[in-house]
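Sanity check

After download, print the first record. It should look like this:
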Amino acid sequence: MEPLIHVRNKVALVSGAAKGIGAACAATLARHGASVIVADIDEPAGCAVVDAIVKEGGVAAFMSLDVTDETQWQATVDTIVDRYGGLDVLVNNAGIAIVHTLLETSLEEWRRVHAVNLDSVFMGSKCAVKVMRPGGRSGRGGSIINLSSVGGIIGAEGLASYCSTKGGVRLFTKSVAIECGRAGYGIRVNSVHPGNTDTPMFRQELEDMRRKGVVASTEEARKFYMDMQVLPEIGQPEDIAAMVLFLASDAARFITGAEFVVDGGLTAQ
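Expected structure tokens:
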């Protein structure tokens, strides 16, 4: 009996896939049968992810993508459909964080974080829905998975711009899920909300806290975050990727417009 959770014969696009959670999502989807497009602005790191996937026997290719550029989004999706015959899964993962208090945050920084974290989700989802819906160039429905954060549910000091974007992703996801469901597109849209996860971005946040004098050391910063959650271990990118795999698979066929928290119990308190 074949496993219920798999993505065989599916084509998946993962943005921000050169490192961290995105790289883990790409590797996990490929390991469970998908043809994966690793999309990022960091070509050397993205190609390294592809090489690792192929070495394990998976199918993957790198495509350069600036997620803040709508023209690049459209070209990327069109190329994927031309090359693979369709698109079944979109993982909107690309994201950045700037650790500044409200008074320290410039309008330019605010707009940059929103462009990468929120505008990209809008543009990527719009391009994907166009091709996934009935009559579209792919036309077989699909699953869109948007990476939000626990910062899209609760606030965090020094992360007003980040939390604003992630809260936007959370409700954008629900709105698009309703639209696609009511229209009968066969497209499911859900959000995933990681907590403390050992990624390059999280480690940079710890360093920023130390540099700005919020804490005396990165170890103290890590303890500050870890004290928020219930489980004693920090999350790994693969923990988030496992949830993404589930939502991409047909095992989640009756799930849309939902939010999935993977945070070691951080938001349970």
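If your output differs, re-run the checksum step. Summary of this record's structure: The CA atoms of residues 197 and 235 lie 4 Å apart.
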